[in-house]
Each structure stands twice: as C-alpha cells, then as structure tokens.
Amino acid sequence: MPPILNAKRPTNLKGTAKQFLHYLGKHKILLFIVAILVTLSALGNLLGTYMFRYVIGVAENPTTYARLWQYILIEVAIYLVGALSTLGYTQIMVYLAQKVIYELRRDMFSKMETLPLSFFDHQTHGQIMSNYTNDIDMLADAMNNAFAMLISNFIQIVGLFVLIFILNWLLSILCTIFYIIIFAYVIYASKKAKRNFEKQQEAMAKLNGFVEESLSGQKVVKVFNHEEENILEFTKQNKFLQEVGENALRYSFSMIPFVVSVSYINYAVVAIIGGLLVIHPLLGITFAAADMATYLVFVRQATMPINQFTQQANLLLGGLAGAERIFKLINEKPEIDNGNVTLVNVKENNGTLIEVNEKTNKWAWKNTDDTLIPLKGDVRFYDVDFSYYKDKPILTNLSLYAKPGQKIAFVGSTGAGKTTITNLINRFYEIDNGSITYDGIDIKNIRKRDLRHSLGIVLQDTHLFTGTIKDNIKYGKLDATDDEVVAAAKLANADSFIRKLPNGYNTYIVGDGANLSQGQRQLLSIARAMIADLPVLILDEATSSIDTRTEALVEKGMDKLMEGRTVFMIAHRLSTIKNSNAIMVLEHGKIIERGTHKELLAQKGIYYALYTGKLELD
Prior knowledge:
By secondary structure, the protein is α/β, with parallel strands linked by helices. The protein has helices at about 15-25, 30-50, 50-60, 70-110, 115-120, 125-165, 170-215, 220-225, 225-250, 255-280, 290-330, 420-425, 450-455, 470-475, 480-490, 495-500, 520-530, 550-560, 595-605, 605-610, and strands at about 340-350, 350-355, 365, 370-375, 380-390, 390-400, 405-410, 435-440, 440, 455-460, 465-470, 510, 535-540, 565-570, 580-585, 590-595. The chain is built from 20 helices and 16 strands. It has a six-stranded mixed β-sheet, sandwiched between helices. The chain has a four-stranded antiparallel β-sheet with strand order 2-1-3-4. Strands 6-5-8-9 form a four-stranded antiparallel β-sheet, with helices on one face.
C-alpha cells in the first residue's frame, strides 16, 4: 500500500479537526481507554526489544546465567501485555468508529430533512450521495486503520530515537541523517503524487457522474441510438482517469522501495561501524556486543513505524477531507421558520370550536393567544415579487385570490411562473416583497410543518417510494385504513389497474415505479393526495401523463374530491380547466388575463388563441 491517500486534504484542517474531535469527545471514557492501551502497546514493543540487551548480555557474562529465565519471563510478560493491549484498542476502535459514523449519518440525514429546496436546486443528487458513501467510507477507513495506529507509531518513533541515543549517540547521529533523507524524499514524492491524485479524484467524480446519468437515462439513450457515442465518451474519460492515476501512483509507489532501500543501506553502515566500535572503541566510546545486537534490532524496526506513520497520516488527512465535506452538509443553515401559528384538530361544541387531541378531520389555526380560526382554504396574494436569483424576477407585483371552494387555474408558457406560485403557497421559497395570506393569516406566521400539512399536492414529476402500492398511497396519511386506501384509489380511478397487478395493493414496486406506466404512477400520486383529504389542493399538471379516456374518469373523481376545497391547478390541456372559477393567463411573471372560461373566450385574447389552436404553449 502506498504511503499516501488518493484524496484532497481538508481546506480548513483546524476547523474540521475541531468538529471531528467534538464527535469523538462524546465518548471520552472509550478514548481514554484507547489512549492507555495504545501507549501500552507501543511501549511493549519498545521495552520488549530493549530487554534483548539483558538476555544477550548473559552470554557475555556467565555469572548472570541464573537471571536468564527471569529476563525471558519479563520479556514474555512485556510482549503479552503489548499484544493484549493491541487487541483491546483495535476492538474498541472498531466499535467507536462505527458509533461515530452512525452519529454522523444520523446528523447528516436529520439536517438534510431541514434544508430548504433552494439547497437542492444547487446540489446534484450525486454530490449529496457522495457524502453518504465515499466521504463516510473514507472517514471510517481512517478511524479504523489510522487514528490509533498513528498515535502508536508516533510513540514508537519517539521512543526508538530516545533508546538508540541512549545506546549509542554517535551511531544515532548517523541514523538521523539517513532518516532525514527518507523524510525529505517522502515529502517531495507526496507533493508530486498529491497533485495527480487530486486530478484523479476530479476525473473519477466526473466519470461516476457520467455513468450515473447513463444508467438513469438508459431509455433515452436507446431511443436516440446514442450507445456508440456514450461508449466513446466513457472511453475518453476513462482513459484520462487512467493517465492521471498512473502519474499519481508512479510517485506514490516509489516511496516504499526508496524507504526500504535507504533503510537497508543505513542498517549495513550501522552494522559495519557498530561492529568496529565493539572491537575498537572510538573517542572513548565503548559498545558492548549485547548493546550492538539490540541497536541493530531497533534500526530494523525503525523502518516500519516511519513508513506506517506516513501512510496513516495521509490516510487520516484524507479521512478528515471526507469529514470536511460531511460537516459542510451538517453545518448548512436549516430552513428558516419563525411561524408560531399551528394547525390543530377541532370539533364544534354548541357552535364554538374547541381543540381536541383525537383526529376529527376538522381543523383550525391556533394563534399564540389560543384563539382558533377555522381552516377554510382562503388563499390570497398581495403585490408579490419573487426571484430565484437576484436581478432575475420571476413574479412581479402579482395579486390574486382564491376563496374557499374555488378552483383556480393557471395557464402560460414554460417559465411564466405557474409552478412558482404553488411553491410560494407551500413556502418552499420566501417572497421578496408583498404578502401571502391563508385564511387571513400571513403564511410567514404559520409554522411551515402545519402549513404544508394543510396542503395536498400532485406534481407533474411523480415520485414513488420503494414498497407496496398500499404503502405509497398511505404516504398521504400514514394511519389510513385499508378501506380508506381502496376508496382513495377508486376515487382516482386507480383501483382497476391495481387489482390487475400480480399482488394487487400488496404489489412491491422499486426504482420509482419503473414497472408501472407513467399514467399509472400519476394515478397513484393522485390517490396519495386524495387520501390526505386536505382543504387545499395543488395540481401541477396532475393529468399530463394520463390518456384522454382515463383523464375523463379521473376528473369525475377529482370533482368529488374538490367539492368545498380550494384548488390551484396548472394544466397544459385547457379542456381540464373549463370548469374553473377563475383562469389566469401568466406571462413573464404577470397576470395578463383573468376570468372564467367563457369570459376569456369572449375577450378573444391569448386564452382564446390558445384554446382555438391559433397559439400554442411552449
């Protein structure tokens, strides 16, 4: 194994190490035990070697022969303590590493669930998944294989230098020169390899991203016959990865042979000069044969901890680089929520609403003064300005209202701001100016969790989770009964196709429902919103993937669902919004036409042109 890791170093080593030590600090007792055992392990190796001088010294002085067994027993005891200490701290580190990794994964996922959608708009799924896989693996590897061993080898290196200087300071100066040469080359080769390893890491990330895209887009690749082009692009990126990897490993793998070769030369020189000192003392320095033998063992042992120390230092730095990226996610600012108005279950008692703990399917907003405002679904925009990026407005001075039970439809070209309006109702993003009220309450004052709990939504891009069809429908209401699941499916016209599946409602789906048609997936998404039985519905192209016949059946069920509910509907098929209470035509973030279907046709404007086919939505 080369003494360098193929990873970037942390840019903020001090800050990363401090936060990492914070996690380790939660397990102070275990760390204290590890520190003691590591020290005993390292000292056991050193003292066991140092005892050789006494064992070998018996041969030089037969009068001490009676102590031979005593020395041997001491030697055995020292090595036994060292071996048991090594076994102890490695087992504790395995537990400690997995515990810390568990806590990091838990904190990462918990933080991810609190982040605003704007964070995910600027991060690819691959980048985030890399935190859970590559970065976690790097840190776990460093903790298992480097953390304790790095300390052990450091103690051994320091101890070795102290003991060899005690045995013979003249030879130790010579050894130090060789060790300086070794360290100088390792530092030089590490810098050269580091640059190429960084290129390799970037090339690997790019290649993995390409493979991930190709894997998820296989259907598109085959439809457009891009297999050959993809193979050529993959080959090109793979070849570059090979080249930078070769350059990095060329320097990296040269270090062990260099260290070993110089160590052998050092050993030979020390053996020759040491032997001469045993025969002929120099500068008043005498060297006993027993000390000479012990010294040579130390010189041979010095190579391993020096080599391992370099490996483990780089492994630990690489692990901290992974930790830095993990902490970057953990330290992200969570979604801001200053709301204090909550959503509570209520029931009516003598014409007065009272809060109850049981589920009544009747809701009210609860203010900080405990006053209750019935949840009706009255949503209003007042002079709202919004932009995803500064100086690039999406909505400008937008005002609209939806009274309880009204069906409001939005029409417009791509980028006109239709989906943005529904995102603002959910407070997925914060508006720049103006205000949005819900039953007369500014939505900024409503706790986000409660606000979203009152809204049902069906998106154009459906998402199904791994599990049964029943589980996916119940995602809208986790405590729903089987009868409620079936009722929601029937209302969405999904029951007929579900019963034709091999296991009906217990059919297991994976891969975002890859074994279902897009229309079937959309129907399940609608059923999921229906079972939630919420007062406000947002339908973002909810029937875009359903054929005309199915759409007509679904609309009948949806009409029942929408009775008495406020509905915001985005649709490209204008036939689906004819019965809306109000239709708003958007362009560049502004409402340019509004009215009922008949009123807009009578105006003979943009909506009329769209409906009659004289103009198409882009």
